[in-house]
Write a sequence for this structure.
């Protein structure tokens, strides 16, 4: 658990809690009043009890207040912290107590004393040994010189005065001395260390008491009954301190990464874009072939793309895509050459980019104007490490209209990134198999310099012609996880999908600053 | 994409400018600077520009882009008189061959390393891992023309590069590192490709390994080039680009006759492109002379033909020019991407959200309101997480990827609850209570659906909490449900319920079974709800 004692940058004095600076005499009365109110009833009662005594032990004060010594120490500590109203001194005290055996002997006498009293002037050894305390007592009788033994006969040796041990045992309170040492040695008494607290009232505390303390009973809860009866008017409600932070609550929240995705979605909706959708499973045809990605492109291989079993249906007019790949169809293009294989187009894959959705949206909406976007999960066959994941979110936007140009594309990119909080954007040439010209936008990030963020271009005629599209298509894509690293300050992308709950709890809903 | 090492001294000599100026302008020409070292810079060029994969090729383009030269470089060839023949038995194995002789080279160690780098990059970008084309360079001093490209018996022996003893070609596929790396390209062929000279000495076993005999060294001045492959265009591209790079390095290119056909052809190709089409694509207002000047900077030949058309001479090495728009992109690069006006079009459309986005937002609103934190687990997971750890029977409709990287990401999630259990496991040392939820795609068969799940893990999590959340969620989503007893083994018997909407079971809720908790390493009870929302989208 986090420390909740202090909050940085927050001055306790500002919240009306006294800090003990009484330099301004004119304010003294008011200040004293506020100080007294800030004390709990228990603290005020302790001060009141302490005032006539000056100082006292915690146990004694506990008796007076009807509280445990521990509670008294707690109240006193608060008084001490709170402007030095009282002082608490910790003392280690040694005390002694009799063991069970010691208590028996304190009542009945030591074994040797009892044994001595059990016979007259003399007795036979056999007789003496039958006494229940014989095994302990006979040795002590001899050691103390109270008896003499001759030929199996025990004889008293005269007076047997009480020793230090017996005198110590007779006193109510055990005090240190030779007698007690003897009892400790015989295991009849034990030594105990105990911590005691002495509490003293300080001048500031005395001043509060002299100004008068309200010692009425405090109520913790304003109740239904109090409101119904109006008794709340006479009640003293406990007052709370505001320089202690409350229990930390965490609201149910949308995931920080989802909020970022929602922000991008909102920007595109604001710009009038229609949202596209589609399945996570796509045919090679839509994921690659319709985008003029050559069939032997490395990205299509098993090493880079998650292939699935099964065979997908091809859409009507797929032959035009084949013609485009093989020889450029009816355009000025040469195509890729070679033989286009239908079977490869029918292979099913986990979609590798959201462009697979764009091209299908265009096939279904071939007439201008089209402005559409998608934000969704895509898959690449990569081993998991801090900067590579086999799945991540990608954003894709397209614009198709009469007379749109590459310059307009750069305009949409600049506007999108500006709204996303990146006012400085530059454009570098890029390469993607399905766009021409292609561009890699970069945004300027303080401390990092120019950072590549996504890719864009105008769909090649080899892509648009087989679908019968007659106007240019501007397209751009953006890996959202890369943006998340920039915006959420992540070093490890796994945090997005295998989140540490504490990170979600602590990432605030509203992000401040960022020039937005 | 291939990373090309450009040594500064060589680059400065070939370009004629200092390294700072060159490196400064490289990004705007179309490349990523990978890293800068003391004596070289590593640059990533795009996969469609193999002509830039050598210091010589990059320098040729940069001299134009930086305004030092313009127009195309033309490479002439003279006949070498050397003949090559192709064995018809190679049809169906590796039938295409390109070749040339390059004389008068003075190769230092740096130049040889550069040449090897070009070869490797071409193998990757044009050859697709030597499949479509593989390249061999041979010291001409040790061999005697004419040369033969044969379909050889597989047990023919010779000394492969980096070895001292003869071995059979079949043995090389096991014993030679390159043999092991590329064996898959020839293993099933009845005979193996082989290049020999007039004295039956072996030059190469393409696409696997050259012979030690023709190793190229700093002593080499004359080189025989062979490019073999299964794709005629790729073979021609590789041959052309290597000849052009070696010509830039100071070599004289001589042609070879392959069964009577002259190789290489370093002739340019021609296209007549429209100025208007270019302006309409780019959003510029260039006239024909301005556009032609830009193209000459990109090392095309370009002459206006009237006001509207330009005759473009495309150098032999520009294999990326497939379409007029490829030419127009070079106009844009020469013009400068930074100079475009960059204003969005006024295309007016009305925004519209997908129904699933609205539904997901409703789920988020309801579950956040109930105090749950959203999570976004992976789609790919394991059979163990989805089924056995949940005490559930494997679903035969679960979609398995064909070549998973690990068993941990082998199956697409069919529901979300198991992934939330796994997230609780990751967070088992974090403070309780933990209330989590997820909403997102699921896959059944090949169909994408939508689901949600919520879990609550703390000392007092119980059936009532699960039922309460399920009830609230369904009410807020407007799902008129009935709850019936469930038999889902993931939950405790008698503390589980199924949610039925329109006669179909779409969800389950209850107290998670202690064995499931154990399987996920949890030692506090979990109340859970799982709901399939796919039907709500139809």
């Amino acid at each position: 658990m986090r420390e909740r004692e202090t909050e940085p940058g927050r001055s306790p004095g500002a919240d009306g809690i006294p800090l003990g600076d009484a330099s301004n005499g004119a304010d003294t009365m008011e200040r004293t009043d506020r100080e007294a109110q800030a004390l709990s009833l228990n603290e005020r009662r302790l001060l009141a009890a302490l005032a006539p005594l000056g100082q006292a032990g915690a146990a004694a004060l506990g008796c007076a207040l009807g509280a445990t010594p521990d509670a008294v120490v707690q109240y006193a500590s608060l008084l001490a912290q709170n402007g030095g109203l009282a002082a608490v001194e910790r003392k280690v005290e040694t005390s002694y107590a009799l063991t069970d055996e010691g208590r028996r002997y304190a009542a009945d006498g030591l074994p040797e004393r009892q044994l001595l009293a059990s016979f007259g002037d003399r007795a036979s050894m056999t007789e003496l040994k039958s006494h229940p305390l014989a095994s302990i007592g006979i040795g002590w009788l001899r050691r103390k010189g109270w008896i003499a033994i001759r030929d199996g006969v025990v004889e008293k040796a005269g007076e047997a005065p009480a020793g230090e041990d017996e005198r110590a045992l007779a006193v109510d309170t055990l005090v240190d001395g030779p007698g007690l040492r003897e009892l400790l040695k015989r295991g009849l008494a034990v030594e105990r260390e105990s911590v005691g607290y002495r509490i003293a009232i300080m001048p500031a505390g005395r001043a509060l008491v002299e100004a008068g303390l309200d010692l009425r009973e405090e109520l913790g809860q304003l109740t239904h009954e109090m409101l119904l009866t109006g008794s709340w008017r006479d009640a003293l409600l406990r007052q709370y301190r505001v320089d202690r932070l409350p229990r930390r609550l965490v609201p149910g929240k949308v995931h920080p990464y989802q909020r970022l995705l929602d922000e991008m979605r909102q920007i595109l909706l604001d710009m009038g874009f229609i949202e596209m959708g589609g399945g996570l499973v796509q045919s090679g045809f839509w994921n690659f072939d319709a985008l003029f990605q050559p069939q032997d492109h490395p990205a299509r291989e098993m090493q880079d793309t998650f292939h699935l079993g099964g065979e997908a249906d091809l859409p009507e007019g797929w032959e035009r895509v084949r013609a485009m790949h093989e020889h450029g169809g009816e355009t000025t293009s040469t195509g890729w050459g070679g033989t286009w294989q239908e079977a490869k187009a029918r292979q099913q894959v986990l979609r590798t980019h959201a462009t697979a959705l764009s091209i299908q949206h265009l096939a279904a909406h071939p007439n201008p104007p089209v402005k559409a976007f998608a934000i969704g999960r895509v898959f690449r066959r990569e081993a998991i490490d801090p900067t590579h994941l086999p799945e991540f979110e990608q954003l894709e936007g397209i614009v198709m209209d009469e007379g749109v140009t590459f310059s307009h594309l750069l305009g949409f990119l600049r506007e999108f990134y500006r709204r996303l909080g990146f006012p400085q954007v530059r454009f570098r040439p890029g390469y993607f198999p399905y766009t021409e010209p292609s561009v890699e936008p970069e945004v300027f990030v303080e401390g990092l310099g120019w950072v590549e963020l996504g890719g864009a271009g105008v769909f090649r005629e080899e892509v648009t012609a087989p679908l019968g599209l007659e106007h240019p298509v501007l397209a751009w894509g953006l890996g959202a996880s890369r943006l998340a690293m920039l915006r959420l300050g992540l070093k490890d992308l796994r945090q997005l999908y295998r989140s540490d709950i504490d990170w979600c709890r602590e990432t605030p809903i509203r992000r401040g600053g960022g020039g937005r | 994409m291939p990373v090309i090492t450009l040594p500064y001294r060589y680059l400065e000599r070939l370009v004629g400018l200092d390294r700072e100026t060159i490196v400064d302008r490289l990004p705007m020409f179309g490349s990523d600077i990978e890293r800068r070292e003391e004596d070289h810079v590593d640059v990533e060029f795009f996969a469609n520009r193999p002509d830039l994969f050598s210091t010589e090729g990059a320098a040729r383009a940069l001299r134009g882009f930086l305004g030092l030269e313009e127009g195309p470089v033309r490479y002439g060839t003279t006949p070498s008189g050397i003949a090559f023949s192709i064995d018809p038995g190679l049809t169906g194995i590796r039938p295409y061959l390109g070749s040339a002789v390059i004389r008068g080279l003075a190769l230092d160690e740096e130049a040889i390393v550069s040449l090897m780098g070009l070869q490797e990059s071409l193998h990757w970008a044009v050859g697709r891992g030597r499949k479509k084309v593989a390249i061999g360079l041979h010291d001409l001093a040790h061999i005697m023309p004419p040369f033969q490209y044969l379909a050889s018996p597989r047990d023919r022996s010779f000394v492969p590069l980096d070895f001292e003893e003869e071995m059979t070609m079949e043995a090389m596929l096991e014993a030679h590192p390159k043999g092991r790396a590329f064996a898959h390209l020839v293993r099933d062929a009845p005979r193996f490709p082989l290049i020999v000279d007039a004295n039956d000495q072996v030059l190469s076993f393409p696409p696997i390994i050259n012979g030690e005999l023709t190793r190229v060294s700093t002593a080499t001045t004359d080189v025989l080039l062979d490019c073999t492959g299964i794709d005629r265009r790729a073979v021609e591209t590789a041959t052309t680009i290597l000849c052009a790079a070696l010509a830039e390095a100071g070599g004289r290119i001589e042609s070879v006759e392959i069964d009577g056909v002259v190789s290489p052809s370093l002739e340019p190709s021609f296209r007549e492109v429209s100025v208007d089409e270019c302006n309409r694509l780019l959003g510029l207002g260039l006239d024909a002379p301005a556009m032609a000047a830009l193209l000459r900077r990109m090392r095309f030949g370009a002459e206006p033909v009237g006001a509207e058309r330009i005759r473009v001479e495309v150098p032999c090495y520009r294999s990326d020019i497939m379409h007029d728009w490829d030419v127009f992109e070079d106009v844009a690069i020469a013009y400068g991407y930074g100079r475009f006006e960059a204003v969005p079009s006024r295309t007016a459309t009305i925004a519209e959200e997908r129904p699933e986005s609205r539904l997901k937002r409703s789920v988020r609103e309801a579950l956040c309101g109930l105090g749950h934190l959203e999570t976004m687990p992976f789609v790919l997971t394991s059979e163990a997480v989805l089924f056995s750890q949940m005490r559930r029977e494997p679903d035969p409709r679960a979609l398995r990827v064909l070549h998973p990287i690990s068993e941990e990401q082998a199956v697409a999630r069919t529901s979300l609850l198991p992934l939330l259990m796994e997230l609780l496991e990751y967070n088992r040392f974090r403070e309780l209570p933990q209330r989590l939820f997820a909403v997102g795609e699921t896959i059944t068969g090949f169909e994408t659906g939508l689901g949600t799940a919520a879990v609550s893990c703390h000392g007092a999590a119980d059936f009532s909490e699960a039922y309460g959340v399920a009830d609230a969620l369904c009410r807020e989503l407007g799902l008129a449900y009935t709850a019936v007893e469930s038999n889902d083994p993931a939950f405790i018997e008698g503390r589980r319920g199924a949610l039925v909407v329109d006669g179909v079971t779409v969800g389950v809720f209850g107290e998670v079974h202690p064995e499931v908790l154990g399987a996920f390493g949890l030692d506090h009870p979990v109340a859970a709800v799982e709901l399939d929302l796919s039907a709500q989208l139809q």
